[in-house]
Structure formats: structure tokens, C-alpha cells
Design the sequence.
């Protein structure tokens, strides 16, 4: 059992490492593709040499970044099989479909038209080239769509039923999978956050040009395009973040409680704006959850249900059996100790079904199936030994959520100021402090983006499929030493690639900040 | 369509993707030659010729994996989680490829051009060889068991169990080496054919590739014949109403019983040989890649078909025949396969725009002057 836990932990570390590295590059790809497409559209309309040079410059950075995103992406896809073998069978009938659609619909589109973007300037007409650039941008977004649908399904399983004969879940409603609340919110939230990230990146790099007093006109035009893309992105991210919060309250209330460090909920629950958690607090003691906090009265109730006076359950409430129903009402539900007992009954029913099927005992199969159907909702809890195991890591979820929200608020202000300055107060942008703030904001937006994913993924632990399959039962039959070796191999390779990317990216930016960009873009 | 028909249809899709992937491995074959070039311009031409196609190969590999996951998830679960080291080494080799073209000559490249050329070389050799090893297991099997009931054991819940070597035993199996080496030398042969078609270099560069076509082609044919002899005499699993039986020459019988397989196999072999021999001995023939490429696709298609159809186990378990994977016991459900079949209607459109784009982009071969021209994106 100890080795099993170790394999689970190392497999989680490896997957997290791959996903986090992948997500360093992907949002920039998605957002920069849109920005480049907009710039090239202006070029095709105006045939201005400046816009052509701008397009080529940002496209160059897009290409440098795209390569590493591709490299880390293939690892992620195959790690579902290599490290999560049980998962691949238990839900492969459902989860595999979006991955395959992603490949057929999006990856071929990206990989075909990106070649035209880079090599087609003298081989195809400007309009054909522009179409290729837009199709690449659309391809990146479509790619995100399908993988996010797959991810959303893990958080809100929908459109499926359990097949006891094959001991796996099978799809019975494709559109329920595609259009679930969580899928819609996750796609819009994530893609909009990618626009935000790329907007900050372009503005930050443009600030470097302004600092070096080189290609100033290009930098100002880039700030305008990136400012609007980023502003649209951050507004959409905030709006869909609200949608996500409501969904989490409905479908993953334990995650919401962890995000807030909330143990005992109440009506009109306050929202912790800033706080420090008490490390001694556990669900089964009476310690104060916070060492310090500043809260917004009734904020969490409104965030979770859009009702200032609604009840929001905490970790203890959920363990004892209180939650919010689909209508936002507080209801008594099954407590976690009972869920574990029911989950074990579900396992027994499945075992009985399997035995009866092997014996050809049709009556026995029917009895077992009836029991299984009535208990399957809590099947995953059968793997747990105590309610404490169903609580995600509270501190990591709590702090990363706050980092994301505070950084998001800063980024809204950032884009408002950037747009106001570039249109009405250009002199602000010639101030070195402002320029450095612009550049350092690149770090902020990446921290924000990574924090969002950590909140979403750590907050849903211990589940790989919400309520149905805990992470510990999703693994492959490999030793922890094996996974440790590949973990460190991946860590080394990804770090080498990251250093290579940053070095080349900085070199290209530096090169273009020393000379006239319209000259360099011909090289 | 009934589930059985959908399983056949999806094995056909997998076969097409697998066959296209083997053809597109000419990119890797070309990479395996990058450390042995006459001069910098030759290498630049080769890298840029390959660099405009690498993503097609890469994407086909990714889609091949995704389609396998969607249509035959038990294979995904068993093979990837079981032959862990085999797949990990394949993945590591492809990670290096993805960045090398973009980074090798960019300013700020702190590792140097040679570093990335080595990564491309490793991907070229290791990627081809290990993918051949992985496909070889479709015939010669592996040591694994599949027990669905394991999922109810909290202490050891994994359904698919593999021998502790986790893929190393496949890498060091002499049978798998034969197909691995055949794939590697096929890829090198096709890369030379591709360079003859896609690069307008000087005559000596063209003649060099002619020689390479011949040398690599002959080595490939030797390994291919050895693999064919081994395959046709091997004891494969045959599923009967009474269960599994080992049948001497199972795959040979599959070729005969599915007559279209042997016909297409013969046509494919003749096309590959025609493409290789005409390119090697004609004065200036550049279309060999098409003959060889289409021939390769046909031969690989038949290999997948004899592995999966006609009551065969496409992933035989050497220690528990009942655990062997077939297209019937490892597939997704009728509902999912139907949904995916609607999506597969898009495949002809995808192939059409890929063809159209590359028709527009490749109607003139790459030239040395293009590598030195203004405003060109050069790797």
C-alpha cells in the first residue's frame, strides 16, 4: 500500500510537472495567434510595411513559443496511458473521444496552416496567407476547446452511465459532455485568460522597445492591439470566473470550501479577501481557521449562488451532510462517512455482479445490478478509508485562488491604464517606471495563469473523476522508482527547453530593439 | 452500424493513420542522415526540406494515439501503461524534435546548432526504430494480463499488469529488432527519395541521394524479407468458438483468407521496389517518393489488417491468451464509435486541405538561393 501511494504521488508530480510546463507555453500560443492574425489583417487591408514588419516580428516569437508547447503537449496526451492506465480504461470510452476530435479537427489545421504562416509569404497570395494565419489561430482555440471539454468532464461527469459487465463508464450523451456547465465555463474562462496573457506579454515586450527608444511607433501600435485583446480577455475571464465559481459551488462544493479555507459555513457567508491560514486547523478540531483575514461581508454567498443570504457549506458541513442543491437551496445530503459505506457497498455489488455473470446466474446479476445502480453515485468513496481523505490540500488551494484573483484584479487595472495611456497619455508610456511595470507584469500574468490551474486541479483532489474515481485508483502498474526516474528526466528536459526558449526569445527581442524592425524583418 | 461493423471501421481508421505515419517517417529518416552531410548548404537544404513537413508526422503520431484512445481504450491502457519504457523513450525522442528545427540556428541559441542536430539525429534513429518495435508487438506479443476485477482491490487496483521490465523486454527482443530496423531503413530510403523530389540542389547532391536510395533500399529489403518470413511462419493466436488456439502461420493464412490483403501487399511491394529501383538507376527521376510512399501505405495497411481482422489478436498476451486484445474486446462502445464515426467524415476534408496547401507550397523544389534569400524563414 505504501508503494501504491508513492506511485500515485510521483505520477501526480510527473503529470503536474508536464501540465504546468505545457501551460507556460500554450496560453501565449493561443493569445499571440489571435494578435498576429489581427495585425496581419490590418496589413492586408493597408499594405503598410510597418504592419507587415510587426506581424512578422510577433509571428517569430509565436513560432519560438509554439515549438515547446507542441513538445510538452505530446507528453501530456500519452501520459494518460503511461501513468494513468486504469483511468484510460475506466473512462476511456468517454475521455478518448475529445482527444481524438482535437487531433482530427484542430491539430491538423494548426500544423498545416502554420507552415503557410512561416514559409508561405512568397509562395501564396496575401489573402491566402492571412486565411492561413486565422485558421492557425482558430486551430489553437479549437485544440483548447476539446481538451478543456475533456478536463471539464473529469470535474463534472455528464452524459455517461456505468457498464458493470465491462467495469467501465460509457458515454450515452455526447452533447451533455460537450455542453456541460463546467465545459462552457472552463473553455471561455481559459481561452479568455490566454488572450489576457498574450496581451500582457505583447505590452510588456513593447515597453522594452519604448525603454530602448527603438521602434517606438511599432511598440505603440502593438500596445493598442494587445491592449484591446487583453482587455476583452480579462473582462471575459472575470465574467466566466464568476460562472466557474457558481459551477464549483454546485458540482464541487468541497473544492469551494477549500478555496476559502471554510470549515463551518453559514448563511450570508463572508468572502476572505486576504488571509493567512492557521496551519494547526484540521476538520476535526476547533482551532480558528485563520491567523489573520480581511473579509467581504456576504461575499462568498453571493459569489457561489448570486444570493447574498444563501448558505454556503464548509468542509465540516459537507462531511456531516449539508450542501447546496441545483436551485441554490441548502439541503441535507449524505455525509461522507455514509458515502464511504455506500461506496463500499457499491464495490460489493459490482463484485457480486461479476461473480454472478461468471456463473451465468442471471437472477443474481439483476439483484447486484439493482444494488449497484442505487449506490454507484458514491462508487469512488469506496476507495477511501476516512472522510479526511476526501478533503483537498486546503492551503495550496486557498493561497493559489487568492493569488489568481488578486492578480486578475491587477490585470484589469493594467489594461485600463495601458489603453488610456496609449490613446490619451502617451507620455506616461515614456516613463521608465511605467515601462518597467509593463515588463514585470509579464511575470504577474504567468503566475496568475498557473495559479488558476493549481486551484482547479489541486482543489478537486482526491478525485480524478469527481466522486467516481480517486487518483489512487487511476494509476498504472509501475513502480515508484520508475516514475521517479522519468519525473527527473522530464524535469531536466523541460527545464533545458525552457531555458532555450527564454534565451532565444530574449535574444530576438533584444535584436529587434537595437535596429529598425522593418530592416530586420527582411532577414 | 452494428458494433462489430464499427469495430472493423475503426480498425480501418487506425490502419490508415498507422500507414500514413510510417510513410511520413521519411522526416525521421532524413534526420538520421543530418550528421553525415558534405557541407553546410546540403545540411541547410535537408533541414529546411524536412522542417516544413515535420509537423505533419508529429501530428499524425498524436492523432494516431488519440484515435487509438478513443476507439480501443483497452490498448491505450494496456500498452502505454505496460510497455512504459518503450513509449517513454519514443516520447523523449520526439520532444527533442519539436524544438530543434525552430531553435537550431536562431540567435540566442545557447546550446549551439550541433546540439539540435544531434536531437534530430536521435529522433530520426531512435524514433523510427522504437516505433517499429512497438508495431512489432502487434504480432509477436508481450507479457501482460488484463483482469477487470482488479479495480475492486484497493491495494492493487490496476487492471492491466505487465512484466516488471515494462517495455525493455520488447526493446531487446530480436524479433522486434527486425521490424524496427526495417522501419528505420525504409524511412532513410524514403527520405532520400523525398530529397530528390523536394530539393533542387546540384547534380552531386542528387547523385548522392541516388546512392543512398540504393544502399538503404537494399538493407531495408533484407530486413523486410526477414520480417515477412518470420511473420508468415509465426504461431499467431486464432480465436475459435472454443477459445484461443495457436495457429502455425496464422498471419500467412490471414493474408490468404483475406485475398485483398495479399493483392494489396503485392501491389505495395512492387510499387516500393519500382520507386527505389527507378530512382536509383534512371538518370534523373524525381517521382520515386510517390511510388514508394503509396506502396508503403498499402503494405502497412495490410499489416494492420492481418493483425486485427480474421479472428486475430492484435495485441497477443504471451502469458495469458485470454488477456490478448482483439478489436472486439478492447473497443469503445457502439455509441462512442458511432459519434467518432461522424467525426471521421471530416477526415477527407482534412486530407483535401493538407493536399491543397502542400500543392501550393511545394510546386517548386527548395533551392540554395531560397535559403539565402531576403525575408525567408530559414531553419
Sequence:
Amino acid at each position: 500500500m505504501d508503494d501504491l501511494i508513492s506511485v500515485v504521488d510521483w505520477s501526480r508530480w510527473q503529470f503536474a510537472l508536464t501540465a504546468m510546463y505545457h501551460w507556460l507555453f500554450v496560453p501565449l500560443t493561443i493569445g499571440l495567434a489571435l494578435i498576429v492574425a489581427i495585425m496581419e489583417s490590418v496589413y492586408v487591408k493597408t499594405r503598410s510595411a510597418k504592419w507587415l514588419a510587426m506581424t512578422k516580428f510577433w509571428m517569430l516569437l509565436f513560432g519560438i513559443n509554439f515549438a515547446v508547447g507542441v513538445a510538452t503537449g505530446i507528453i501530456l496526451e500519452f501520459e494518460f496511458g503511461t501513468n494513468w492506465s486504469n483511468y484510460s480504461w475506466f473512462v476511456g470510452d468517454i475521455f478518448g473521444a475529445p482527444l481524438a476530435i482535437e487531433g482530427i479537427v484542430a491539430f491538423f489545421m494548426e500544423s498545416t496552416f502554420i507552415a503557410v504562416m512561416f514559409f508561405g509569404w512568397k509562395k501564396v497570395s496575401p489573402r491566402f496567407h492571412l486565411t492561413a494565419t486565422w485558421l492557425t489561430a482558430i486551430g489553437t482555440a479549437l485544440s483548447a476547446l476539446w481538451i478543456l471539454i475533456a478536463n471539464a468532464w473529469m470535474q463534472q461527469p455528464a452524459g455517461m452511465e456505468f457498464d458493470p459487465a465491462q467495469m467501465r463508464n460509457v458515454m450515452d450523451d455526447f452533447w451533455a459532455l460537450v455542453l456541460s456547465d463546467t465545459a462552457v465555463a472552463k473553455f471561455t474562462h481559459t481561452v479568455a485568460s490566454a488572450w489576457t496573457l498574450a496581451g500582457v506579454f505583447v505590452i510588456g515586450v513593447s515597453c522594452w522597445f519604448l525603454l530602448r527608444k527603438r521602434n517606438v511607433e511599432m511598440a505603440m501600435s502593438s500596445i493598442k492591439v494587445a491592449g484591446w485583446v487583453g482587455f476583452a480577455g480579462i473582462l471575459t475571464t472575470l465574467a466566466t470566473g464568476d460562472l466557474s465559481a457558481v459551477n464549483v459551488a454546485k458540482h464541487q462544493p468541497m473544492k469551494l470550501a477549500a478555496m476559502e479555507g471554510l470549515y463551518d459555513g453559514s448563511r450570508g457567508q463572508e468572502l476572505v479577501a486576504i488571509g493567512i491560514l492557521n496551519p494547526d486547523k484540521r476538520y476535526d478540531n476547533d482551532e480558528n481557521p485563520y491567523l489573520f483575514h480581511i473579509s467581504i461581508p456576504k461575499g462568498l454567498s453571493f459569489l457561489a449562488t448570486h444570493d447574498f443570504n444563501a448558505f454556503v457549506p464548509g468542509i465540516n458541513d459537507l462531511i456531516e451532510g449539508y450542501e447546496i442543491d441545483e436551485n441554490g437551496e441548502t439541503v441535507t445530503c449524505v455525509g461522507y462517512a455514509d458515502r464511504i459505506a455506500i461506496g463500499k457497498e457499491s464495490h460489493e455489488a459490482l463484485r457480486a455482479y461479476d461473480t454472478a455473470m461468471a456463473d451465468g446466474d442471471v437472477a443474481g446479476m439483476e439483484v447486484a445490478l439493482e444494488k449497484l445502480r442505487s449506490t454507484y453515485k458514491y462508487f469512488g468513496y469506496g476507495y477511501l478509508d476516512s472522510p479526511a481523505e476526501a478533503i483537498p490540500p486546503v492551503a495550496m488551494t486557498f493561497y493559489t485562488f487568492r493569488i489568481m484573483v488578486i492578480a486578475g484584479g491587477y490585470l484589469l487595472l493594467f489594461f485600463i491604464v495601458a489603453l488610456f495611456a496609449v490613446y490619451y497619455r502617451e507620455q506616461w508610456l515614456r516613463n521608465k517606471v511605467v515601462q518597467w511595470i509593463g515588463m514585470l507584469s509579464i511575470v504577474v500574468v504567468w503566475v496568475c495563469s498557473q495559479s488558476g490551474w493549481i486551484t482547479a486541479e489541486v482543489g478537486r483532489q482526491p478525485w480524478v473523476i469527481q466522486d467516481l474515481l480517486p487518483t489512487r485508483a487511476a494509476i498504472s502498474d509501475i513502480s515508484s522508482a520508475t516514475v521517479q526516474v522519468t519525473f527527473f528526466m522530464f524535469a531536466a528536459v523541460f527545464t533545458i527547453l525552457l531555458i532555450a526558449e527564454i534565451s532565444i526569445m530574449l535574444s530576438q527581442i533584444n535584436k529587434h530593439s537595437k535596429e529598425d524592425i522593418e530592416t530586420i524583418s527582411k532577414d | 452500424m452494428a458494433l462489430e461493423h464499427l469495430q472493423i471501421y475503426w480498425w480501418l481508421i487506425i490502419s490508415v493513420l498507422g500507414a500514413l505515419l510510417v510513410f511520413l517517417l521519411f522526416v525521421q529518416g532524413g534526420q538520421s542522415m543530418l550528421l553525415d552531410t558534405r557541407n553546410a548548404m546540403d545540411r541547410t537544404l535537408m533541414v529546411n526540406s524536412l522542417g516544413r513537413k515535420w509537423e505533419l508526422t508529429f501530428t499524425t503520431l498524436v492523432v494516431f494515439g488519440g484515435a487509438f484512445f478513443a476507439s480501443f481504450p483497452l490498448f491505450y491502457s494496456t500498452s502505454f501503461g505496460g510497455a512504459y519504457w518503450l513509449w517513454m523513450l519514443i516520447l523523449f525522442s520526439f520532444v527533442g524534435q519539436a524544438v530543434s528545427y525552430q531553435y537550431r540556428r536562431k540567435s540566442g541559441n545557447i546550446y549551439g546548432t550541433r546540439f539540435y542536430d544531434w536531437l534530430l539525429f536521435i529522433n530520426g534513429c531512435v524514433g523510427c526504430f522504437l516505433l517499429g518495435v512497438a508495431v512489432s508487438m502487434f504480432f509477436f506479443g508481450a507479457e501482460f494480463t488484463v483482469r477487470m476485477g482488479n479495480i475492486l482491490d484497493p491495494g492493487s487496483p490496476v487492471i492491466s499488469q505487465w512484466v516488471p521490465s515494462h517495455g525493455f523486454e520488447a526493446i531487446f527482443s530480436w524479433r522486434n529488432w527486425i521490424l524496427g530496423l526495417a522501419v528505420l531503413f525504409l524511412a532513410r530510403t524514403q527520405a532520400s527519395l523525398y530529397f530528390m523530389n523536394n530539393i533542387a540542389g546540384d547534380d552531386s547532391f542528387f547523385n548522392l541521394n541516388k546512392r543512398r536510395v540504393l544502399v538503404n533500399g537494399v538493407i531495408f529489403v533484407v530486413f523486410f524479407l526477414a520480417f515477412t518470413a518470420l511473420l508468415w511462419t509465426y504461431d499467431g493466436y486464432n480465436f475459435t468458438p472454443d477459445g484461443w488456439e495457436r495457429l502455425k502461420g496464422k498471419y500467412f493464412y490471414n493474408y490468404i483468407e483475406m485475398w485483398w490483403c495479399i493483392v494489396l501487399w503485392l501491389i505495395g511491394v512492387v510499387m516500393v521496389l519500382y520507386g527505389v529501383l527507378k530512382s536509383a538507376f534512371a538518370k534523373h527521376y524525381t517521382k520515386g517518393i510517390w511510388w514508394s510512399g503509396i506502396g508503403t501505405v498499402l503494405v502497412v495497411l495490410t499489416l494492420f489488417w492481418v493483425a486485427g481482422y480474421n479472428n486475430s489478436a492484435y495485441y497477443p498476451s504471451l502469458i495469458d491468451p485470454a488477456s490478448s486484445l482483439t478489436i472486439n474486446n478492447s473497443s469503445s462502445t457502439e455509441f462512442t464509435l458511432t459519434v467518432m464515426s461522424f467525426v471521421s467524415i471530416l477526415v477527407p476534408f482534412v486530407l483535401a486541405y493538407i493536399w491543397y496547401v502542400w500543392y501550393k507550397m511545394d510546386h517548386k523544389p527548395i533551392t540554395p538561393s531560397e535559403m539565402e534569400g531576403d525575408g525567408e524563414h530559414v531553419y
About this structure: The beta strands of chain B are 144-146, 160-162, 235-240, 243-248.
